[in-house]
Write a structure and sequence with these properties.
single chain, about 260 residues, alpha/beta, Rossmann fold, 2 domains, 7-stranded mixed beta sheet, 9 helices, binds glycinamide ribonucleotide
Length: about 260
């Protein structure tokens, strides 16, 4: 039977609408459901103009190849105890996603995060200040196949060379509600001391993109906690850690999926 113009108009339209459902259906049986669901959600949100990965996560990681099912390799940079690093490692260990913490980068010999790396069998890279400022260890990171960088209690400024090598692929967590209480020298207990000294009634956490300036990249996510009259920098630090542990890994997942 000869097909008229209406057929050639409707048939491609029908196929275009049908393919996402076919992909979802097949992915159930091939174990790729989570991956394709995320992909289709992104396509949908772009078509509808929202462009956001989730309710409270602003902006998206520009994956090297959206359709590739290859794992996304994360490097965590940390200088201290590494409780956030542990949470992130364990979150992705147990999720069965294509996201993997593949390297721990540390600038403090003997830091707790190095023990965590050893316990988890994750390679670590010890860095020094002059090389970091000069070349950002870009070559080592690229050689290790790192796609995405997470600063979790990392206290050095990220050099421009590294920011340029990983555009839209470096995030940091800060233990206060930026833009207040950020910048050079504002880390850990110093931040909580300043917040309490200023008489703030609330504090919180900020997850943000990293640029060449301390704590100035675009904000991705914030969560708040209240400050009581009895709070000390230590008790506030505990509240902040609880928020970080609850939100950091899920925010990374939203950005990467
Ligand atoms: C975290 O509270 C993090 O927000 C803060 O260091 C702590 C590291 O804890 N980062 C900064 O202050 C950066 N300006 P952890 O080693 O237990 O993850």
């Amino acid at each position: 039977m000869e097909k008229n113009w209406a057929f050639w108009l409707v048939y491609p339209l029908f196929l275009t609408i049908l393919w996402p459902f076919s992909v979802i259906f097949v992915s159930f049986f091939t174990g790729q459901f989570a991956f394709f669901k995320g992909y289709l959600t992104r396509v949908g949100s772009r078509l509808l103009g929202s462009g956001s990965a989730g309710d409270s996560v602003a902006g998206n990681y520009a994956a090297p190849s959206t359709l590739s099912a290859a794992p996304i390799h994360i490097a965590i940079f940390a200088s201290g105890a590494g409780s956030n690093a542990r949470k992130i490692i364990e979150y992705f260990e147990n999720k069965g996603l294509h996201i993997k913490v593949s390297l721990i980068v540390c600038n403090v010999p003997g830091a707790g995060v190095l023990e965590i790396a050893e316990e988890k069998g994750i390679p670590s890279l010890m860095i020094n200040k002059s090389d970091f400022a000069a070349n950002g260890y870009v070559e080592s990171l690229k050689n290790a196949g790192i796609d995405f960088i997470v600063l979790a209690g990392f206290l050095w400024k990220v050099p421009e060379v590294l920011v340029r090598a990983y555009p839209k692929a470096i995030i940091n967590i800060h233990p206060a509600l930026l833009p207040k209480y950020g910048g050079k020298g504002m880390y850990g207990a110093r931040v909580h001391e300043a917040v309490i000294a200023a008489g703030e009634k609330e504090s919180g956490i900020t997850i943000h993109w990293v640029n060449e300036h301390y704590d100035e990249g675009a904000i991705i996510f914030q969560a708040k906690c209240s400050i009581d009259a009895t709070d000390t920098p230590t008790s506030l630090a505990n509240k902040i850690h609880a928020l970080e542990h609850a939100h950091f890994a899920p925010t990374i997942e939203k950005l990467l999926s």
